[in-house]
Amino acid sequence: MIEKTIVRLQKHLAACGIDSRRGAERLIEAGRITVNGEVAHIGQSVLPGTDVIEFDGHSVGEDKKVYIVLNKPEGTVTTAKDTHGRKTVMDCVHGVNARVFPVGRLDMDVEGVLIMTNDGELSHRLIHPKYEVDKVYLAWVKGHVSTKSARALETGVELDDGMSSPARAVILNPGLKITLLRLTLHEGRKRQVKRMCRAIGHPVRTLHRISFGNIKAKGLRPGEWRYLSHSEILRLQEMTQLRHG
C-alpha cells in the first residue's frame, strides 16, 4: 500500500505544473486556488489524491513532466501573460504538449537560453542560490573595461539590495568604446548583470545568455525551441540534488 504524504499546497501546485512555487503562492494570494471547495491560504498543506484542489475551477492533477529550452528573442516578455499586450515567451512555444512556464526571467531586451518546464521542484531549485547553478552571459558594455574593473565583478560589487556574489569575468574583446565580457553567475537577482556592470561604470549595451547550467541553445534561431534530451535532464537533476550521479 502506498502511503500518501501531506505537502505544502504551493509545492504540490508546482509539482502539478501550474506554476513555480513563487508563482503558485501568488495564485493562492489572489484567491484562484480552492481546496475542498474553500479558498486556499498561504501556508496550507494538502493531501494529494484525497483533497480536491482546483485552479480557477478546474481540477489540479500531476502532468507528465516536460522540459524545453527556448532561444528567447529580443522583444519578448518572460511571463505567461502580459497586461500590456506585448509578445511573451509563451507565443514562441506553440506545439509543446503541456503547459510550461519559464525558469527565472530574462529582460525584454535580452536574448538567449531560457529553460521552460512544468516541473516546479526542479524550477525552484535551478533558481535557488543554494544550488549555485551557473548562468553564463555575453555582455557588450560601454567603454574600455580594465582588468581591475573585471576583478571587481569577481570579488562582488555593492548593489542596492546588497553585495553581489562573486562572478567569473573574462574580457573577450577589450575595445575602446565597447568591451565584450563573458560573465558567469549563479545568483539570479532582478537585472543583476546590468546592475553589476553599471556599478563598475560600464553600462550594458547588449546582453545574451549563452547557457543555464548545462543547457545551451546551439542551433536554435531566436524564437526556436527544442525538448531537452534525457541526459540533459538528468544532469540538471544532479546539479540540483534531485538525483545523485
How would the blueprint of this fold be written?
Layout: E1 7-8, H1 9-15, H2 21-29, E2 33-35, E3 38-39, E4 45-46, E5 53-55, E6 58-59, E7 67-72, E8 101-102, E9 111-117, H3 120-127, E10 135-142, H4 147-155, E11 158-159, E12 162-163, E13 168-174, E14 178-185, H5 192-199, E15 204-212, E16 225-227, H6 230-239
Parallel strand pairs: 9-15
Antiparallel strand pairs: 1-4, 2-3, 2-5, 5-6, 7-9, 7-16, 8-9, 10-14, 10-15, 11-12, 13-14
Features:
single chain, 245 residues, alpha+beta, Structural Genomics Hypothetical 15.5 Kd Protein In mrcA-pckA Intergenic Region, Chain A, Alpha-Beta Plaits, 3 domains, 21% helix, 28% strand
The CATH topology of the largest domain turns out to be Alpha-Beta Plaits
Query: What is the count of β-strands?
Result: 16
Distance between the termini: 29 Å
Q: H/E series, N to C?
A: EHHEEEEEEEEHEHEEEEHEEH
**Could you name the ranges where pLDDT drops below 50 across 5 or more consecutive residues?**
none
**Fraction of helical residues:** 10-25%
Summed up, the helix count is: 6
Shape: elongated
Oligomer: single chain
